[in-house]
Amino acid sequence: MRVGGVETQSQQQLSATVGSQVPAIVCPGDLEAKVGTVIVCSITSAESGAVYDVTITVTSVDESTGNAKWDIKVADQPRGSST
Fold first, then answer.
1. Alpha carbon of 62 to those of 21, 31, 40, 70: distances in Å?
2. pLDDT in the model for residue 62
3. Over the stretch 34-83, which tens digit does the pLDDT of each residue have?
4. d(CA 8, CA 26)
5. Model confidence, pTM
6. Are 26 and 7 in contact (CB under 8 A)?
7. What number is the average pLDDT over the span 6-14?
8. 27 contacts 14 by C-beta, under 8 angstroms
9. Residue 33 has pLDDT above 80, yes or no
10. Inter-residue long-range contacts of 49-53, CB under 8 Å, 24+ positions, other chains counted
11. Burial of residue 41 (number of CB atoms within 10 Å: 0-12, 13-18, 19+)
């Protein structure tokens, strides 16, 4: 999937999960529609400005359409945190 689509759909999915609008998710490139593919994107906290890793993992692909579904995991600690 193209990077813009992954970012937008991931932001929408994460917003629905937490029940409020989350900041934009930024990914370094396209996401290959292949089960097990992982890409590490980022999200910046609106409150603190801290950057968190967002790991996106493809969980399934519809072979007839090529559409992928994926899981999203936001890191518990911001980048560069020693805790």
1. 28, 15, 22, 12
2. 93
3. 999 999 999 999 889 999 999 999 999 998 988 899 999 999 999 987 65
4. 9
5. 0.87
6. yes
7. 92
8. no
9. yes
10. 50/78, 50/79, 51/78, 51/79, 52/77, 52/78, 52/79, 53/79
11. buried
Integer Cα distance of 34 and 59 in angstroms: 8
CA distances from 23 to 31, 53, 81 (A): 20, 13, 20
Check residue 18 and give its pLDDT: 85
* Structural tokens at position 76: 């518990």
Length reported for the chain: 83
3-state secondary structure of 6: helix
d(CA 8, CA 37): 18
